[in-house]
Amino acid sequence: MVARTQHPNILEWLDKGKAIIVIGPRQVGKTTLVRQISGELNRKTLWLTGDDPETRSLLDNISLARLHNLIGQNEVVVVDEAQRFTNAGLMLKLITDHLPQVQLFVTGSSSLDLAAQTKESLTGRKIEFHLYPLSFVEMCAEHGYLRERSLLEHRILYGYYPEVAQKDPAQAQKILQDLSDGLMYKDLLSLDQIKKPSLLVKLLQALALQVGNEVRYLEVAQTIGADPLTVERYIDLLEQSFVLFRLPSLSRNARNEIKKGRKIYFYDNGIRNAILKNFSPLALRNDIGALWENFLLAERMKRNAYTSYFCNAYFWRTTTQQEIDYVEDTNGQLHAFEFKWQPKKNVRFPASFLESYSGSATHVVDQENFEAFVGLE
Predict the structure, then answer these.
(1) CA atoms within 13 A on the CB side of 190
(2) d(C-alpha 342, C-alpha 270), whole Å
(3) Contact call for residues 335 and 232 (beta carbons, < 8 A)
(4) Residue 221 neighbours by CB under 8 Å, 6+ apart
(5) Strand ranges of the sheet holding 76-80, from the earlier edge strand across to the other edge
(6) Which one of 25, 258, 333, 371 counts the least CB within 10 Å of its CB?
(7) Euclidean distance between CA atoms 343 and 337, whole angstroms
(8) What are the beta bridge partners of residue 243?
(9) Strand positions, DSSP E, the chain
């Protein structure tokens, strides 16, 4: 079992009167991690899974008295896939308010309802941890830097889902196809959020082809035969279900900066390639720049989340097509990053950016130095 970076981070918050919430995409190991931690505690534990219809029916609109009887002498309660429960927030609030001796763990693979319910009902009573597919850093710890570095092309094509990470290409493709179908539909369709699944497939394919480029909802809508509001709503739902994430544009100083632009990336390269049904070797592809950019940003997201590195993230572009791939704002200090698959000796950052944001640090990330960017010290 691959050791997860969030494991010790979660241990630090045990028995501090907080519900521990672990959220992230499906099949990334949330349940496995919580099961491992709860097993180490050696306490009586009650598991309640939202994927079980009988359990959901039992807990729908449950009263405090019945909840008290259900939990009994258990010292740990795990609510798995909590977004599947009706009124999950109320149930969790009852446990945290009235059973303070219980350590509550909550997992969720969709923030469609869970975030809204827990934000209000568990204010001041929860600590939240994101868990993503395995990371470059975690796999280096698992079997060594040299081996993991030799697998870089494989990771860029097949990603880091735990079930995929140690499989050969043929097995990885099959698993990713099954994963991509389930990730796309399970929570969205069960909550009646998506009325046209075929449109969702077209949207995902269109977005997969635009990784690294600015996404305009009107253009995407015209491409797939939908209206822009539907496109925006579906993208919002896909983001809440941890299939993809958006990167906004930085716009503060220069008059010709794009004000409301956004780029869209996938949490995992393997899912992106499964959507396109394209696992061709890098040497035969014309999208290696997009794949490299998506890989780096997904790994950077993991690094920032696991080390509690707080920053605002952007891309930068002007109406004259000057651009910078990625910008982080940390306490007012800007760090600008350019991503290059092939190392280049001279990379020039736009003079207009450097003039508008004087004092910014600039970095070029390529195959020869990417390890520090993704968190390998």
Answers:
(1) 18
(2) 21
(3) no
(4) 227, 228, 230, 231
(5) 45-49, 76-80, 103-108, 19-23, 126-130
(6) 333
(7) 14
(8) none
(9) 19-23, 45-49, 76-80, 103-108, 126-130, 244-248, 262-266, 312-317, 323-330, 333-339, 361-365
Tokens at 348, concatenated: 């020039």
- All domains of the chain, ordered by start, with CATH? 6-130 (3.40.50.300), 136-374 (no CATH)
Q: Helix (H, G, I), strand (E, B), or coil: what is residue 35?
A: helix
Residue-by-residue DSSP string for 204-232: HHHHHHTTTSB--HHHHHHHHT--HHHHH
Cα 291 vs. chain centroid, distance in angstroms? 16
Distance CA 205, CA 199 (A): 10
Question: How many helices and strands (H and E) does the chain possess?
Answer: 17, 11
Which residue is listed with tokens 């319910």?
A: 117
Tokens representing 96 are 């945290």
Closest CA to 80 of 125, 36, 21, 136: 21
pTM: 0.93
Which tokens go with 298?
Answer: 């997904």
Percentage of the chain lying above the pLDDT 90 cut: 72
State the Cα angle at 296 between 278 and 281, rounded to 5°: 30
- The CA-CA-CA angle for residues 363, 366, 372, to 5°, reads 65
What does the pLDDT average to over 71-81?
A: 94
